[in-house]
Amino acid sequence: MAEVDFKQANESYAASFGDNGKLSIPPSKRLAVVTCMDARLHPEEFLGLNLGEAHIIRNAGGLAKESLRSIIISQRLLGTKDVLVIHHSDCGMLTFSDEQIRSKIVNAHPGDTNVSEAVNDLDFGPFPDLDRSVKDDVAFLKNHPLVLKEGNITGWVYEVETGKVREVV
Q1: Does residue 164 contact residue 52 with C-beta atoms inside 8 Å?
Q2: What are residue 156's phi and psi, to 5 degrees?
Q3: Helix/strand/coil percent split, the chain, to 5
Q4: 166: which of 6, 15, 61, 79 lies 20 to 30 Å off by Cα?
Q5: Side-by-side strand order, sheet with 153-158
Q6: Digits of tens for pLDDT over the chain (169 positions)?
Q7: Cα separation values, 91 from 33, 61, 87, Å
């Protein structure tokens, strides 16, 4: 287990939880944020969001295709309109190819055909160009028939070196 005392941390959190249990399920700002799972990112902080104001959807690279199911539920059932796609500088997804990670996994399990077959079915979604990946994700969402068109879909890059965001599209 990670070197964190989760029980003690939760006790402290619960002690100051206040009325947060009464927040409504739909986010008050009608906003969904798609971003990376990178531990250096704290989107609520760098976007000035409070608990209950937005859905934060995270995955490796902050990829829109991988977030699609959550975005559809967020919009269709919980009333969000706007979607922010936020990738970030120094992202791990810029550092490898599908072939490299597949090879690493297969080599860790020599002779295991189940692993080989399973890993070959996965698209890990690496990208070589940060701004292009943001533009591609925004275009994917804008053109998807299940994503609502009433809100804005914008793309941003969070700079891990400075804490600033910049709009890409």
Answers
A1: no
A2: -135, 160
A3: 45, 15, 40
A4: 79
A5: 54-59, 31-36, 82-88, 153-158, 165-167
A6: 567 789 999 999 999 999 999 999 999 999 999 999 999 999 999 999 999 999 999 999 999 999 999 999 999 999 999 999 999 999 999 999 999 999 999 999 999 999 999 999 999 999 999 999 999 999 999 999 999 999 999 999 999 999 999 999 9
A7: 17, 7, 8
